[in-house]
Design goal:
The complex is a heterodimer of chains A (454) and B (188). With 454 residues, chain A is α+β, with helices and mostly antiparallel strands. Helix content of chain A is 32%, strand content 26%. Chain B has a five-stranded mixed beta sheet with strand order 1-7-6-4-9, with no helix packed on it. The chains are: A alpha+beta (454), B mainly beta (188).
Chain lengths: 454, 188
């Protein structure tokens, strides 16, 4: 196993990875921007190298400085966390060039999965069908018209290099296609320097369901069940749970096995997530594969009892996966609520500032509770980075037990100083639709626009 | 090929420090008591197998007041202090021009939120307003980025500012970090 690990990230994920490293006897080394120097979370690391000023492109995204930080602190491996450089194949390649083990899949796989069309065709070849749409990139508006006739409206044009909703245009009928085409293409060109587009059937009222997989460097892959992440706002996940209330036991097993087999067939290694869209008719379509640890990984850890970050480190150290699929038993239900520094009563406006009080209970009945955070009372939340304050994760033998545990935990949480999304979570958890497990990505149950006004 | 890199100057009150501009291994440190002037080489920083000479920035002059690092090859981070400078008797470099930017008098619009301030709607568009341009209440003057969320900064007639005004001078650079209460611009 590695002796020292550089964690190329900040905040909550840096703390999470440092914990796993320490449990395996690895010395965690961190990086920080000047804005983060001296922040309480840096205390979880044995050593911290400052890599630049506050702006991410000058610090947390500076590949050269991060690689040098790993080299001069004697680290043998680099964990990218999530966000920042986690899915940057150039970073993975440069780490390898300098003799550093990148904790994640190789740069070749990462690059293929990062582009939509190669990812879709690789997974289709492995038996996971995507949403009906164009076979590949579209050469012209005329070709788009032809494909659109076959696929049917409504549809959505997407950028090959896309992300964050840019380079995307919905199109309800043929008369809108020309305008949507030119807008999406121009936007994609401006945002990513690549105006290539493809199109897909546009599905409303779908659910976001993903499968957690683990694969070692020797072709052995398993799955650890699924997660439902349909409670979202602006494509940002708010609440996740495992297992998904929308899948039957048979569907769950079959989906998991197919995802693991597909990952193995493309030569994937490490922890990864295969994302699916479940259409209202129950059909499941492959969306994308995320080549990294996910923010919502704790719900899987709670139902499977497997520490995903430790597994990532074992795999990166070239150990064979010890777990067989038959060793994996998933029990109970786990729910995660992301508490963000955003004010739900003011259109989710970000609320940086000082956390006067920040306390969560350590136990809450009837199930068990886990709180992942990098913050404590008195900490300053800087305006330069994302707004995640804490993830509250509740596990119960049944879904209603997990729900009850979560409600007790959030009810006892004390956060003062900044407005947070806590009230939103309480409203969703109390809603009938959420209790029944009947929800999708199009709306947040229990949280209407009217309720947000006051 | 570029083989030099400029040290970063940090002035806080009386103290003048030169700090590392990158992550790397610092070698060839100068001795305490040595004089440092603009453009002078003050050590070498090695990173990813490449060695760069560290150069003193313009308008910096002083006597090295700190000891050399313990190790001949000292690993440093961005912003690590490499030199503390004490002023040289009778040196007057750097005074004068620096002070012209202080918002002592005039009508100033201050930031009401902390974040990163941009003067233009996107990197390839023109600024919302240039120096000499007209301002009106409700008009966008810039963008502020807080936790990855962008929102427009509007001109407001608060703090005794007139509803219509002319932009005299910017204080906040495009892309600058601003804190709550920092001056953004001066109007008349």
């Amino acid at each position: 196993m590695f002796r020292s690990l550089l964690i190329a990230n900040r905040g909550e994920v840096a703390v999470r990875v440092a914990r796993a490293a320490r449990e395996l006897g690895i010395r965690p080394v961190g990086i920080a921007s000047e804005a983060d120097l001296g922040a309480s979370w840096t205390g979880f690391l044995d050593e911290v190298v400052c890599v630049g000023p506050s702006a991410p492109q000058d610090s947390y995204l500076r590949i050269d400085r991060i690689v040098q930080a790993a080299l001069q602190t004697g680290c043998a491996a680099v964990h990218p966390g999530w966000g920042f450089l986690a899915e940057n194949s150039v970073f993975a390649a440069i780490c390898a060039q300098h003799g550093l083990t990148f904790v994640g899949p190789g740069p070749g796989i990462m690059e293929r999965l990062g582009l939509k069309i190669p990812a879709k065709s690789a997974m289709a070849a492995a038996g996971l069908a995507g949403i009906p749409g164009s076979e590949g990139l579209l050469d012209s508006l005329d070709e788009a018209r032809e494909v659109a006739e076959r696929v049917g409206y409504p549809l959505i044009l997407k950028a090959d290099a896309g992300g964050g909703g840019r380079g995307m245009r919905r199109c309800l009928g043929p008369e809108q296609l020309a305008e949507a085409w030119s807008q999406a293409s121009a936007e994609a060109q401006a945002a990513f320097g690549n105006g290539s587009l493809y199109l897909e059937r546009y599905l409303t009222g779908g659910r976001h369901i993903e499968v957690q997989i683990l694969a070692d460097n020797f072709g052995h892959a398993i799955h650890l069940g699924d997660r439902e992440c349909s409670i979202q706002r602006n494509h940002q996940k708010l609440i996740e749970e495992s297992p998904s209330p929308a899948l039957s036991q048979d569907q769950r097993e079959s989906l998991g096995l197919r995802a693991a087999a597909a990952a193995a067939s493309i030569g994937y290694s490490g922890a990864g997530t295969v994302e699916f869209l479940r259409a209202p008719d129950g059909q499941l379509y492959f969306m994308e594969m995320n080549a990294r640890l996910q923010v919502e990984h704790p719900v899987t850890e709670q139902v499977s009892g497997v520490d995903l970050v430790q597994q990532q480190l074992h795999i990166a150290a070239n150990e064979s996966l010890e777990l067989m699929q038959s060793d994996v038993s998933l029990s109970g239900c786990s729910i995660e609520c992301r508490i963000n520094a955003e004010d739900p009563s003011r259109d989710f406006c970000p609320t940086p500032g000082r956390l006067e009080v920040f306390e969560f209970p350590t136990e809450a009945g009837p199930g068990s509770l886990r709180v992942d955070t990098h913050l404590q009372s008195g900490d300053e939340i800087s305006p330069y980075y994302d707004s995640l304050l804490a993830k509250v994760i509740a596990h119960g033998n049944t879904r209603s037990e997990a729900l009850e545990t979560m409600l007790t935990a959030l009810g006892a949480a004390r956060i003062e100083g900044v407005a947070t999304t806590l009230p939103l979570h309480l409203a969703v958890l109390a809603s009938e639709a959420f209790r029944r497990g009947e929800y999708d990505t199009s709306s947040i149950p229990g949280w209407e626009a009217g309720a947000a006004a006051d | 090929m570029k083989d030099t890199i400029e040290l970063i100057l940090r002035r806080e009150g009386e103290s003048t420090r030169l700090v590392s501009p990158s992550v790397g291994v610092f070698t060839c440190a100068l001795e305490p008591g040595a004089l440092l002037g603009p453009g002078q080489v003050a050590g070498v920083l090695t990173a990813s197998g490449k060695s760069l000479k560290l150069v003193t920035p313009p308008a910096v002059c002083g006597r090295i007041a700190n000891e050399r690092p313990e190790r001949v090859q000292q690993p440093v981070g961005y912003g690590t202090t490499l030199y503390e400078l004490s002023p040289i008797e009778s040196a007057g470099v750097g005074a004068g021009a620096v002070e012209s930017g202080s918002p002592e008098n005039g009508l100033i619009l201050y930031a009401d939120q902390a974040g990163r301030f941009y003067r233009r709607p996107s990197p390839d568009e023109a600024a919302y307003v240039e120096e000499g341009g007209k301002l009106e209440v409700g008009m966008a003057i810039g963008l502020i980025e807080i936790m990855k969320t962008f929102s427009q900064v509007l001109y407001e007639a608060r703090g005794g500012l007139p509803p219509r005004a002319k932009l005299v001078r910017w204080f906040a650079d495009d892309g600058a970090e601003v804190r709550e209460g920092d001056p953004l611009l001066e109007v008349e």
